[in-house]
Amino acid sequence: MKNSLNWSIVFILSILFIGCKKEEKSPSYHKGDLTVLTDESFKSVTEALAEGYMINYPDTHIKVVTKKEDLGFLDVINDKERLAVMSRDLSLEEIKTYEDQVDLKFLPARFAADAVIFIVPKNASKEYISMDEITRGMQSENKEFIFDGTNSSNLNFVAQKLKKQPKELKFSVISGNKNIIEELSKYPDKIGVIGLNTLSRPYDRASQELRDMVKILPIEDKGKQYQPDSYGLREMKYPFTRVLYFLTNEGNFNIANGFIRYSCTQLGQMIVQKEGLQPYNIYKREVQMR
């Protein structure tokens, strides 16, 4: 009888212990830690979304880490981190690798339209740049275009747009989008190539100071000029418009997928808009009263 009672107690305690362990391991979108990998070019909007999420869910802690886009992709498929922000289109081979290693369908969570922009010092005489100039310049030994580094999102996207591999292009390097803006005046014969989000925040003093230092060149293509403004991004008219999206290896509804959902809801999209980018999922609607 005593042995039976002892075994009954052990059995009950085992059930309780297993139940507690299951509860500890159950997915949660509203508490826990998450690292988001992002290229420096769109770090600002990623940080703003992370701050918004943590305000709504105080038990979460999201750390935004700057990493080159291609390296962020590798960390996700190799399960080193759960979430990365991407901008370029993946190749069919990369999509297959993602699906094979992560064991999920490739479903990019698009949340913002950003752009790669071409800049010159504020006092430069140049007023616009043509697609032909860009194509020729990226093949020139003069290396007149300054990028923020190899493997950067800006270089990858321009290469993809020109139907080239990054290694086929010729360019100069100054590390960091902000550094390009601040040092561009030292190189009057060069053109900086940066991410729009670096200086797009309309009410931010630091962004305003950066905007005051340079001039954004419209892109001329087939006789028309296109600006990286809300219309150019929303209608995808600006030739170097790019869509930012999240890529995760998280198969359940934990903090990574919670953050993705938040970023794509109206609240998250309003944050994107305040960053000076075009929200992907909401658009301004004009109503005419007669």
Automatic annotation (TrEMBL):
PROSITE patterns: PROKAR_LIPOPROTEIN. Residues 32-263 form the PBP domain. Keywords: Signal. InterPro entries: PBP_domain, Phosphate_ABC_transporter. PANTHER family: PERIPLASMIC PHOSPHATE BINDING COMPONENT OF PHOSPHATE ABC TRANSPORTER (PTHR30570), PHOSPHATE-BINDING PROTEIN PSTS (PTHR30570:SF1). This is PBP domain-containing protein. It comes from Chryseobacterium potabilaquae.
